[in-house]
Amino acid sequence: MTTQQLYNQIQEKKSFLSVGLDVDLDKIPKHLLELEDPIFEFNKAIIDATHDLCVAYKPNIAFFEAYGLKGWASLQKTINYINDTYPEIFTIADAKRGDIGNTSSMYAKAFFEDLNFDSVTIAPYMGKDSVEPFLAFENKHTIMLALTSNEGAFDFQTLKVDGKELYKQVLETSKSWKNSENLMYVVGATKAEYFTEVRKIVPDAFLLVPGVGAQGGSLSEVCKYGMNANVGLLINSSRGIIYASNGTDFAKKARVEALKMQQEMQQILSEV
């Protein structure tokens, strides 16, 4: 999927919502546990209930890997279902990979070719040769961790090196890599005050923004400082939507929460 196709979908749906699929068997409705593949059935119900309100789905790969071969099979069925049934949806493999070049190439093949995701999250700590193998895939996107929403982000990301915060150096350096036009960046919503600085460095890139909702990030603040002329934001919500209910009405309640976010986004878009 191209960024223009993603933007077209944002315009059509009046939404820049990404729904995170972080499936925990201890949290999903108990009646689903009686089914052959409860993870997939949970995802399918959430997807069917929210697909017209969001522009992306973000399966967190760890929540599938934790269940071994069965979990991986559920992931395959989930991504196939999205691609076959709602092909306009942008898909994000939240895998946070990042290794030496030949290993990164294999990770890229796994997510872009075998599973056919549109994008994958990666950690840039090992530098250019760990990221460029992902960037080599046409119409695929590499979403690089830049400034994350967790407490430990301050351990390294905001430390100054030669007078400049490390996250800024990471952003600036990444722009020089081959096929950097395929880069997107993760910037946490709980650090809304940093978006102005991020936009000075990557004014045109899409930013994947976790932390709105359950983690306390403000949608209006993120949009105020982070939105660009083409919106340039994918706001992710996971727990606040998918676990809105643990009863048989879980999909309906998920839709209610997704609709609240979509309507807030529609209002913001109408004002820009």
UniProtKB/TrEMBL annotation:
Pfam families: OMPdecase
NCBIfam families linked to this entry: pyrF_sub2
UniProt xrefs under SMART domains: OMPdecase
Top EC group: lyase
Protein name from the UniProt record: Orotidine 5'-phosphate decarboxylase
Pathway field: Pyrimidine metabolism; UMP biosynthesis via de novo pathway; UMP from orotate: step 2/2
InterPro entries, sorted: Aldolase_TIM, OMPdecase_type-2, OMPdeCOase_dom, RibuloseP-bd_barrel
Domain Orotidine 5'-phosphate decarboxylase, chain residue ranges per copy: 16-254
Reactions catalysed according to its record: orotidine 5'-phosphate + H(+) = UMP + CO2
Gene3D superfamilies in the cross-refs: Aldolase class I
Keywords from the UniProt entry: Decarboxylase, Lyase, Pyrimidine biosynthesis
Organism: Flavobacterium kayseriense
Highest taxon of the lineage: Bacteria
Family: Belongs to the OMP decarboxylase family. Type 2 subfamily.
Gene Ontology MF term list: orotidine-5'-phosphate decarboxylase activity
EC number: 4.1.1.23
